[in-house]
Amino acid sequence: MKQPGDIEMLDSTRLAPMAVGGLVGFRTLLYKEVLRFWKVSFQTVAAPVLTAVLYLLIFGHVLEDRVKVYDQISYTAFLVPGLVMMSVLQNAFANSSSSLIQSKITGNLVFILLPPLSHWEMFGAYVVASVIRGLTVGLGVLLVTAWFANLHFASVGWILVFALLGAGILGTLGLIAGIWAEKFDQLAAFQNFLIMPATFLSGVFYSIHSLPAFWQAVSHANPFFYMIDGFRYGFFGVSDVSPLFSLAVVGAAFVLLAMLALRLLKSGFKLRH
């Protein structure tokens, strides 16, 4: 006859392999997602870096002497952080959304759903891989474009916080889009009519103070603006709005989107049904 202590010991020994197995599952899925984009890094990393450099060369050359943003900050220097953050956001979204829609269409999503992975582990693996890709591309853009401008680093902490949160938000949004979309053109519509306009109208190429009052109000309703404005503050120590307010908006957006993504994963919406 087992004593109560024996039962507790038995339960704990059964739980230990489950915890280890969950960790291994998360690490395996994360490794698969990182390897997926890294094996074609010429397309997923080098191409976005080249695109950002072309933006810098064109806009920087044309508008350098025509646009003044902050005092003693050239337009090219102002443009670099915006291009870096835009690259981070777009590539973080592309990583999770493209991975999920490809798995759904090719039919290999079943190999992710069959193992005993929790919705937390799936969410973590997809989003962390998206953050890694976004930051990798962003770092590449920064290293290349820094040659064209005299950059300052007023606060590395703010740079890292907004880069991580921004990549996390777009990775989560890409996960939601990948769950919702059933074919490539639906995902393309999500990206072309939501992600792209929100990114380009977020102050990447201009300060919102140069806009009419109506468009300033529209910009303040765009969460992407706070990601880029807060990120830019880390370089120059000046911004269009308070970095603390931007952090509050960006943090709240991440929490809300993460809750939605976790709920969709837990319910199996368009994945198991």
Automatic annotation (TrEMBL):
Question: Which InterPro entries is this protein grouped with?
Answer: ABC-2_transport_permease (IPR052522), ABC2_TM (IPR013525), ABC2_TM_bact-type (IPR047817), ABC_2_transport (IPR000412)
In this chain the ABC transmembrane type-2 domain maps to 39-268
Compartment list: Cell inner membrane; Membrane
Q: Where is the signal peptide?
A: none
Chief subcellular location: membrane
GO MF terms listed in the record are: ABC-type transporter activity
Reply yes or no: does the keyword NAD apply.
no
Q: Which UniProt keywords apply?
A: Cell membrane, Membrane, Transmembrane, Transmembrane helix, Transport
Q: How does this protein sit in the membrane?
A: Multi-pass membrane protein
**A single Gene Ontology CC term:** ATP-binding cassette (ABC) transporter complex
Q: Which residues cross the membrane?
A: 12-30, 42-63, 75-94, 123-149, 155-181, 193-215, 244-265
Family membership, please give it: Belongs to the ABC-2 integral membrane protein family.
Sorted alphabetically, which NCBIfam families does this protein's record hold? PRK15066.1
Q: What is this protein called?
A: Transport permease protein
Q: Which organism is it from?
A: Cupriavidus yeoncheonensis
Recorded name of the encoding gene:
yadH
